[in-house]
UniProtKB/TrEMBL annotation:
Sequence segments annotated as region (Disordered): 1-23
Domain of life: Bacteria
Name the UniProt record assigns to this protein: RNA helicase
Organism, as annotated: Chryseobacterium ureilyticum
Length: 286
């Protein structure tokens, strides 16, 4: 009898835990835009420590926090980032080290004219385009006493910015440059089968892109040395010259330069190609 009661009690507890785990998290979302990989000039694991600090502040302030690159389903990461940058109720952006991806994602957020809090370490300078927006600084060495004050400042700024964003007329950035209408991102409802097919198609496209990139890399490897590049220029020169479509030396050089960049991912100036052409002509005379 006791065993049966214990079993029933355990089943009730499991059911309650399952129900609790399935409850929707209704807290506002705070997206994180920040460097992730280790960066020159910063100790290994630095950004993990910074993320812990930011996350603790946002969670204590009542936000559900995650990187804008995170998604609950499997999606192309670029789509995930753009969608989250648009959807998140507020973002905290760390522009320390001026990481290009971070600056691009912050630019998207500004273009959407939505709430953002910018932070940076004390050794990173201000960028011209974002300097009018207040930045909250923290010590790069993450010294405890200064970080405690930073956490207080960040919490106050986060909550104040979020409250202001609820105002229908709130503008994060664009109001300083005139009146703009921010286009909403299109959304659509699809069946489960359609969704799966769409994801499979996306995966196929990604695989093709990777394959094409590998082919391009292989082409780059073929023409690594200056001698090999010069031989390629000579090959293209003879091909285009015999074709007769372009007769001028400058026109041929421009065409060869464009072909090498687009077809072989090799950057070479028309001026250098003209010098090669003159050498080829001398070799023919000799």
């Amino acid at each position: 009898m006791t065993s049966k009661k214990n079993e029933e009690l355990e089943n009730d507890n499991n059911a309650q835990e399952k129900a609790n785990s399935q409850k929707e998290d209704i807290r506002p979302v705070c997206g994180l835009i920040m460097p992730i990989a280790d960066t020159d000039g910063y100790p290994t694991g630095h950004w993990k420590e910074v993320k812990k600090i930011i996350t603790s502040v946002a969670e204590e302030a009542g936000f559900r926090t995650r990187l804008v690159s995170e998604s609950e389903d499997v999606r192309v990461i670029q789509k995930t980032i753009v969608q989250n940058v648009f959807d998140d109720d507020i973002v905290i952006c760390d522009v320390s080290s001026k990481n290009p991806n971070v600056m691009f994602e912050l630019g998207l957020r500004f273009a959407f004219d939505k709430a953002a809090v910018i932070i940076k370490d004390d050794e990173t300078g201000y960028s011209f385009d974002t300097s009018p927006v207040e930045h909250i600084n923290y010590r790069k060495d993450l010294r405890f006493s200064s970080i405690e004050q930073f956490k207080k400042d960040l919490s106050l700024k986060l909550l104040a910015t979020f409250e202001k964003s609820k105002d229908a007329n709130h503008s994060m950035y664009l109001q300083d440059f005139g009146k703009f209408v921010v286009k909403e991102l299109d959304t659509k409802t699809v069946s489960e089968n359609q969704y799966i097919l769409e994801k499979l198609n996306e995966m196929q496209r990604e695989i093709r892109n990777i394959s094409n990139a590998n082919v391009a890399d292989a082409k780059r490897e073929i023409y690594e040395s200056p001698k090999q590049i010069k031989e390629l220029v000579k090959l293209l020169y003879n091909e285009f010259k015999n074709d007769g479509a372009i007769s001028s030396k400058t026109g041929l050089a421009n065409l060869i330069s464009d072909t090498m960049e687009n077809a072989h991912s090799i950057l070479i100036s028309p001026k250098t190609i003209i010098r090669y052409i003159e050498q080829f002509n001398l070799e023919e005379l000799n």
